[in-house]
Design goal:
Layout: H1 12-35, H2 43-54, H3 58-85, H4 106-117, H5 124-139, H6 142-162, H7 165-191, H8 198-251, H9 260-265
Helix pairs in contact: 1-2, 1-3, 3-7, 3-8, 4-5, 5-6, 5-8, 6-8, 7-8
């Protein structure tokens, strides 16, 4: 059985491995450099060294990995939406004014859809048109075709929403990781009281509090960005399904030759 367009894999785990590798390749050298002595040179280099030391704690690196993974998934979904929209330009259905579709045209039009989409990958629009034409060829009822289009649109939209669960989890995991860093920083600042004198205590407590607040800041900022991108991609996917349904209504359902009124008159 052919793969449903809305079930097309997004290759999340390869993207996860790539995200880990990319973040490790970027953060590990910076982390080693930031843990060393401050470099001699211009003031901006010293600032970069201090900033890298503040924003490369383990919880923040985990946030960077989750953020990169979520962005890669969303980018692949955005590219898939753009690919799906190419189906509107394939001429799957006749669009000439006054053209009517008879039940006998259902199977030939199905074969035409298969020929036009062969080798291009699955399309939500092509699948919806194919199912509607098959229903019309069997039932010969406009109402059944319209119901098929509506049901298939709901199924496709539901699959698209459910397949975004990983990104939803990552958007929730980002602030949680930030709060873990906050708790660790606060615990370190409180534990420093029994280990150092009064002078060192202030310096170490300030360092741990800085880690706590920096982790929260990084996590919340990255979470806001992911949520915005998630909202944008989901909006585009919902618009895609709505446009597919509208296309079927305009170029298929409204052009069907309904045999039911004639049957009633006889």
């Amino acid at each position: 059985m052919a793969l449903s367009p809305s079930q097309r894999p997004t290759r999340e785990w390869p993207l996860f491995i790539f995200s880990l590798a990319a973040v490790a390749a970027a953060c590990v050298p910076l982390l080693q450099w930031s843990r060393g002595p401050a470099p001699a040179g211009p003031e901006w280099l010293t600032t970069v060294h201090a900033t890298a030391h503040r924003f490369l704690v383990p919880e923040q690196i985990a946030c960077y990995a989750c953020f990169t993974w979520a962005c890669l998934i969303l980018w692949s979904r955005y590219l898939e939406v753009r690919r799906q929209r190419r189906a509107f330009h394939l001429g799957l259905l006749p669009t000439d004014e006054g053209v009517r579709i008879l039940p006998e045209d259902g199977r030939p039009l199905q074969r035409r859809v298969d020929q036009l989409t062969d080798g291009r990958g699955p399309f939500i629009l092509a699948s919806m048109v194919r199912l509607a034409l098959g229903k019309y060829a069997v039932s010969r009822s406009n109402q059944d075709v319209s119901e098929t289009v509506r049901t298939q649109a709901e199924v496709d939209l539901g699959r698209l929403v459910s397949s975004m669960s990983t990104v939803h989890y990552l958007a929730w995991a980002l602030p949680a990781l930030g709060f873990l860093g906050t708790v660790r920083g606060l615990a370190g600042s409180l534990g420093a009281a029994d280990l150092t004198g009064e002078t060192n205590f202030i310096a170490i407590v300030s360092s741990h509090l800085g880690i706590a607040f920096d982790c929260t800041l990084v996590a919340l900022v990255l979470s806001l960005v992911v949520m915005f991108l998630l909202h944008s991609v989901q909006r585009d996917e919902e618009a895609l399904v709505i446009d597919c349904r509208q296309y079927c209504l305009e170029h298929l359902v409204n052009r069907l030759y309904d045999l039911e009124p004639a049957a009633v008159e006889t």
